[in-house]
């Protein structure tokens, strides 16, 4: 009976981790595809927000995908090697990684849920402070924060954190265009060409003043929250199953060794 369970568990764990390794390899390939040919790869996703992202942000995301793929590939291969060799040391190490990942995920999710309002308010205040102290309003700015904010506003068609009034108190932005006082930066305008009407007399037709970026992020999370929850729960369930079967397999190995010794 033990031999049959041992064999079934071994095959299941190998098959399960082959899927993980395969998904990791796919992620690596996807990341490389995005880096080498971002236009066709983003069009393939059918997600409009991704297709409007700046190339630098897309490339950064691709590297994150590749890193995650490498981790999944190594994780899957480690499990397969551990099970095939029936090494208690490797299996224990594998189990420790799964247990650590589960603990980290559950604790992070719990802390994030408990202190959601606090970290959201803290993040909002930090961005508003950066707008006040670092934003210079230039389209081709060398300022890192200005570049990121401009890119975000253009990509997601929003203006400011809450609205355009967030730019009323800025230390570096001169708010001047051809001798005329401007109200919003160029990145808040719908037309990418610099136009006096948008900069000095913005409205809902020529700019994004009616939509803050905070609301945009909320809308995106709401739109894809079902997918995010489903993916998170799937990963959690798979990790729990992997932990359970790995512990069972390790227990069988230890039990067989004990029987041989006695």
TrEMBL record:
InterPro entries in alphabetical order: Tetraspanin/Peripherin, Tetraspanin_animals, Tetraspanin_EC2_sf
Topological type in the membrane: Multi-pass membrane protein
Record-given protein name: Tetraspanin
This protein's GO CC annotations: plasma membrane
Main location: membrane
Gene3D superfamilies: Tetraspanin
Family: Belongs to the tetraspanin (TM4SF) family.
Transmembrane regions: 12-36, 60-81, 93-115, 227-254
Lineage: Eukaryota, Metazoa, Spiralia, Lophotrochozoa, Mollusca
Keywords: Membrane, Transmembrane, Transmembrane helix
Location in the cell: Membrane
């Amino acid at each position: 009976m033990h031999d049959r369970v041992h064999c079934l568990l071994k095959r299941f764990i190998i098959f399960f981790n082959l899927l993980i390794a395969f998904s990791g390899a796919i992620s690596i390939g996807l990341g490389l595809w995005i880096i080498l040919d971002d236009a066709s790869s983003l069009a393939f996703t059918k997600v409009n927000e991704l297709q409007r992202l700046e190339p630098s942000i897309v490339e950064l995301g691709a590297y994150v995908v590749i890193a995650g793929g490498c981790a999944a590939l190594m994780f899957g291969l480690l499990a397969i090697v551990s099970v095939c060799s029936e090494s208690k040391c490797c299996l224990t190490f594998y189990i420790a990684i799964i247990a650590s990942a589960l603990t980290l995920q559950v604790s992070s999710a719990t802390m994030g849920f408990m202190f959601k309002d606090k970290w959201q308010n803290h993040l909002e205040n930090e961005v508003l402070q950066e707008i006040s102290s670092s934003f210079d309003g230039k389209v081709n700015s060398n300022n890192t924060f200005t570049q990121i904010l401009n890119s975000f506003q253009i990509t997601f068609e929003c203006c400011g954190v809450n609205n355009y009034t967030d730019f009323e108190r800025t230390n570096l932005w001169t708010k001047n265009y051809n001798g005329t006082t401007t109200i919003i930066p160029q990145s808040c305008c719908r037309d990418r060409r610099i136009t006096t009407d948008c900069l000095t007399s913005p409205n809902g037709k020529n700019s994004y003043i009616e939509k803050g970026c905070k609301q945009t992020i909320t809308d995106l999370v709401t739109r894809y929250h079902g997918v995010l929850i489903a993916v998170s729960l799937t990963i959690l369930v798979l990790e729990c199953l992997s932990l359970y079967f790995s512990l069972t397999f390790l227990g069988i190995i230890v039990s067989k060794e004990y029987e041989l010794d006695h």
